[in-house]
Design goal:
Elements lengths: L1 H10 L1 H19 L3 H70 L3 E10 L7 E4 L12 E3 L4 E8 L4 E5 L7 E5 L5 E8 L2 E8 L9 E4 L11 E10 L5 E8 L8 E7 L1
Antiparallel strand pairs: 1-2, 1-12, 2-5, 3-4, 3-12, 4-5, 6-7, 6-9, 7-8, 8-11, 9-10, 10-11
Length: about 260
């Protein structure tokens, strides 16, 4: 093995000598202080910088990629913080309204949060976080700061199921606030309810407020329900139908009150 190495060096000794001379020349150039040599050293340094430039560019690009990744994470963190602040601001506004409502009402009411919507397959309903422990039982009125929401149909110890206005079987005795006409309101479709069988001789106008009539053991008199958006003739042409938009937004509702006593 050693003999083979010696033979290889002997056969190629010219190349080894040439490489050695180049190395010695570079060493002499880099250690010489003469002005012409300094210029040559600068050219050599430029050449080696050119060789190192791709590596430097790759390192710089990696730093840029990492910085961009960190900026994206910081941007997401700030967005999440902003969303939390906006949600807290909106919740604060709702709670201020709820507090004001509780101070101004004379009813015995219990505040509650909506936990879920559509909790039973046969009933349009919401689930709230108060129950028998808070004195809640079936057939208690449920309202929001905007208007009537529905009524309690069943209660457990800590939760209750509320049948809401847009259930097809829900009926509510109402009065038109200006004309004083009485009627039974039921859900129509979409976002609207209706009162049918209103005599055509009675004048009801769009924009008129609709309130609870008080002819009920569940809902006290004068609770806001909605407003008339349109009055149309019924199919028999003898009576008319009032189309009503409820004030309570059942799709967005988050807090309600249960009226325990009035």
């Amino acid at each position: 093995m050693f003999v083979r190495i010696l033979n290889f060096i002997y056969k190629n000794h010219e190349y080894f000598v040439f490489a050695l001379l180049i190395i010695l020349s570079i060493i002499i150039l880099m250690t010489n202080d003469a002005a012409p040599i300094r210029k040559i050293q600068g050219k050599v340094a430029d050449f080696f910088y050119f060789l190192h430039y791709p590596r430097l560019w790759i390192n710089e690009l990696s730093d840029i990629v990492e910085e961009n990744r960190q900026l994206k994470r910081e941007n997401l963190r700030l967005k999440l913080l902003n969303w939390e602040m906006l949600e807290a601001y909106e919740e604060n506004k709702r709670l201020r309204k709820l507090l004001g409502f509780m101070k101004n009402t004379t009813y015995d009411i219990v505040p509650a949060k909506v936990l879920n919507r559509g909790v039973t397959p046969v009933l349009s309903s919401i689930l709230i976080n108060v129950g028998e422990k808070q004195g809640i039982r079936a057939n208690m009125a449920v309202i929001s700061v905007s208007g009537v929401v529905g009524k309690v149909v069943s209660s457990g110890e800590n939760t209750s199921i509320v049948q809401v206005l847009d259930d097809v079987n829900f009926r509510l005795s109402v009065r038109f606030q200006t004309s004083r006409v009485l009627g039974i309101m039921k859900w129509r479709s979409g976002e609207f309810a209706e009162v049918r069988n209103i005599p055509s001789s009675l004048n009801i106008y769009p924009g008129e407020k609709v309130i609870t009539s008080g002819f009920s053991d569940i809902f006290p008199k004068g609770l806001l329900v909605g407003e008339v958006v349109e009055v149309i003739p019924s199919e028999d042409k003898i009576s008319q139908v009032a189309i009503i938009r409820p004030f309570a937004n059942l799709k967005k509702i988050e807090e309600v009150f249960v009226i325990r006593k009035f």
